[in-house]
Amino acid sequence: MDAIRIRGARPLYGTIPVGGAKNAALPILCATLLSDGDSLLRNVPGLRDIDTTAALLRFLGREVRVDIPEVRVARATQPARPEAPYELVRQMRASVLVLGPLVARYGKAKVSLPGGCAIGARPVDQHLKGLEALGAKIRVEHGYVVAEAPRLRGNEISFDMPTVTGTENLMMAAALAKGRSTLVNCAREPEVEELGRVLNKMGATVEGAGTDTIIITGRDELAPFDHAIIADRIEAGTFLAAVGAAGGDVLVDGAPYDDLEPVIAKLRKAGMELEREGEGIRARRLGPIRGVNVTTAPHPGFPTDMQAQLMAMMCRCEGQSVLTETIFENRFMHVPELVRMGADIETRNNTAIVTGVPRLSGASVMATDLRASASLVIAGLVAEGETTVRRVYHLDRGYERIERKLAAVGADIERVREEPAS
Ligand code: EPZ
User: Which residue in 64, 111, 255, 378 has a CA-CA distance of 20 to 30 Å to 144?
Assistant: First the structure.
């Protein structure tokens, strides 16, 4: 199992490239199931989650060629098998995104329930409620969701709360439903808006993607597409927080400034200088870090996927920083590991109170989920001495070669093969 070893307390200087957005690529790969033709995705990041989704599409009867940054999805020779097995779904809960396309395209889908994960229960009740509104018969048996509908019919769907993959699942299902659907209380993330662009390229009529109300006119069939994926705002935000923590002056090239407004506002308040430069963001932190208070919220609020990374930056702030997590019930798994590095963090329910300390000290720490592991890497960049972040397979799900990108701007960081614990 790989680990990442960092010798910290070095500022960062240079340029870091940002890749394509993982959370846009995943639903768009699933959207290929809505059409029989050959689709091409460009600017796809080289991530474990992309490989997992490719394996799932192959299982579902598609030919998939992953040639990063391109992925081609074609019709396969063998007939489609609209089933997503537990072995694949348990590796990546976003596999639930095949449910809508399968039942819309094949009239039947059997998808393993994703189960919870480290950061929370993460039910899919809104996905199922929406599919029922479109006329699907849903039953849950032996850990699988079975959805059937000879033909989905357009309808009004109102989500109880904004759900990113719930919105995306129902957009894809509605794109092949008969007639018009109105989705209300939708997630407004840029990745949802991007999926809307792709469904329009495929021949559906999607209006309002990126707002809380989306109107979709379905088609009898949809065309394949050629699409370049938007940049990953969370990868970019992670690098901005890394500069904020370690100090220095870095161009985060390709960072989508407009999608990062809520993050930029908080990092500026914390003492960073952030300006548009070319296609990216120039990030500087030369003075002290000021404590800021943040409450995560659905887009356009401060993204939950940046909470752990900001917390790592706040460990050495002047004063205090209060971070409140409102999206997931257990997204503080990074706290005990940061405390082992010398951070002063007290958690009460869904609030973490970070009191700045003058220094962190390197330690051997354990990653538990994707963004928590990014948070530990950031802390390692700042800590005195050596930090080893273990179980970096979590990191590889969402960050392409993060150690190389950071080494290129002066971090003393390398990937090492960890001896299995004796
Ligand atoms: C997406 O997960 C992202 N994943 C997550 O990113 C991100 O943290 C999350 O949105 C919130 O922004 C992908 O896009 C692949 P939700 P998703 O449905 O769609 C509750 C990462 O780090 N809910 O928006 O699973 C749910 O429990 C990952 O890249 C229901 O109750 O999240 C949560 O409290 C981690 N019932 C809230 O809604 C449902 O049917 C938001 O979840 C659906 C959701």
Answer: 64
